Write the structure tokens for this entry.
Amino acid sequence: MNLRSAGLLVTALLVSLAAGTVPAAAQPAPDVGPAYCTSPPSGDHYHPERGQWETRRPAEVGMDSAALERAVRWAADTAHAGWGPDLRRDLMFFLSGAMRGPPGEPQNNIVGPVKPRGPQTGVVIRDGYIVREWGDPHRVDMTFSVTKSFLSTVTGVAWDRGLIRSVHDPVKAYVPDSLFATPHNEGITWDHLLRQTSDWRGTLFGKPDWVDRFDGTIHEPDPPGTAFEYNDVRVNLLSLSTLHVLREPLPAVLREAIMNPIGASSTWRWHGYETSWITLDGKRVQVVSGGGHWGGGMWISARDQARFGLLTLRCGRWEGEQLLSREWIRMATTPTEMQHDYGYMNWFLNTGREAVSAAPEKSFYHAGAGVNRIFVSPEHDLVVVARWIDGEHYGDFIERVLAAVEE
């Protein structure tokens, strides 16, 4: 029985006992993983232990050492990030230029923590082993919208536990406040929030939804599920909604369910805003943000990012334990008609090989500004973490790394 089946069975039993009845056996959710999940059971793979990660020479894992070195050197010499070391300064510049509201309504104030960034950094993982590192892979840096993939994962944990019965349920059935009370908002489902197709209207933690449209325009709402719009206000709404379902801080859930089992360090932190504190079950809890547009978000090392990338490469399985169901990953890597290269919360897809022409179509990446990206190629058993690299050169960099793969 997988995690979702077990969670649904427990939920059904609790509901039935309260009603004085006992249910028929719960039907297990189909264990139909994504198309790329064709590798052997994870017990046949190497998984690094906490505090340790074995290295291999490129030739030992079917890679050309000289070609890989050329790729790294090219990134260091050519693909410099547009963001400077002073992220607060650059973030203020970005906000003042991109998030213009109606006259007299500026919304570019930073409300979460910000820290200077480190050097360009990367980690290349093949067959689970570290093949090449550069920069400062242990440094904890802001990761901006890669945070969204961690948020999607925590929502997946709630779904696996049966706390969210269906991603197509209206979120209003789970969130006891007025955020989904309008005729437009009441039809928004979990799937809409995860895919950024909700067009939710309102203000959250002092930020109105229109502020993150980059042009400050206000238009009539599109029906939920009919239009894609990248919007951190609505991403933070997913964070708040998932918190209502799990009833405990999302970083604690992520740590227990995912990060500790995969052997991540204790150095990562997931921040919210100074304005995002709520009272939940009588306790003061901070709602963490799904990105870093106004500060906050996931602060994490490249090594820990690589562990997360390896988990998604292994279809949510780590050392024989299914930490995140294959069905959730299948949904997370499924696009929509509105945005054919986007799955759940910054699982970017290589549909039609448009994002990275040299990479297989089944590859994907977790993406954030900076550029911060965790590239995953199941066909190559490859994970590449790149931080503070120029986005315009990113495809060229991945092409050079893939050119080093010989078998």
